[in-house]
Amino acid sequence: MLPLASFALALAVVLGVGAYAVTRVDALDHRALLVVAVVGLAVGGVAAQSAPPAPTGATTPAASDGRSTAAERLGTRAAVAATSASATVLGVPGGDRITYRTAAGERRTVRLAGIDAPGVDGGDPGRFDGVVTGSYGRTCLAEAGRRALADTRTALVGESVTVRSVTGGAGAPTAVLAVDGRSLNRRFVARGHARATDGRYADAERAARSAGRGVWSCATVEPTPPRRESAAPALRIAAVHPNPPGDDGAALADEYVVVENAGRESVDLSDWYLIEGDGKSYFFFDGRTLRPGEELVVHVGEGRNREGHVYWSASAPVLDNDHETLKLVDGETDRVVRLSY
To answer: Which residues does the annotated region (Disordered) include (predicted)?
Structure first.
């Protein structure tokens, strides 16, 4: 569209030319022509004076284009800095927290991003899916946390690390650190010192779970030494895995008890049976024999019996996730091997 002043001036010119043409054709009085021309020019002049001047040499940014400067973005959300800077580790105050000093002399404490470590107090076992809950789980996680903290302090304090990125404000920054070009965050998860909280380190967590490293050793109860009412039986309950990851009811075959012959002679299991704490569930071994040092895994769910593995065929979870007392009973002599957690 034309500016208002240009439009008014053009209108005045058109009126003047039109008036002249009319007088030529119809022989109107030239005074009428003069009046029309003067009025048109006056209108154009007034409009030109009242129109706002065009800006010169300056531009006005759009207020509603939805874009913001880098400074504005940093002012409205936590900054993410990809620093790739070297730093020296000063301390390890917690299971997943590192204190370091940068080359510029800045001291900073960060939490390792994408992981969660239990700490020396163990914390809530519910954070670590598959770990035994209750007091046993808390105690086991606390022991794992103390071992991990001691190992980490020994390995890292005084060492150089690379700070790959720092996310978050001054209150609770998280960071990705590297040692010798390898992610320290991933190393914590791979060694079982922590669980993965996002997909970056999920593969490392799966490997640590499978190997029973660190916190994942707390998924299985392993008494040392085994507790017995009598020293006579060579059998013992070597391990219990009561809380498989995810929905317990959908993973019954991964809920199991390990029975071991710790003696020097074979043991006929014909008269032995396994009973869980409240006495509602029994498992009979149906004449199996365990050779010295041999183990038998009793799975709670359904499956096909094979060498070293038998199935309880229960339709619901049998073992409590937080506390339980299992009994391995010799029906002929009433000798009992107990395990509690």
So the answer is: 48-67
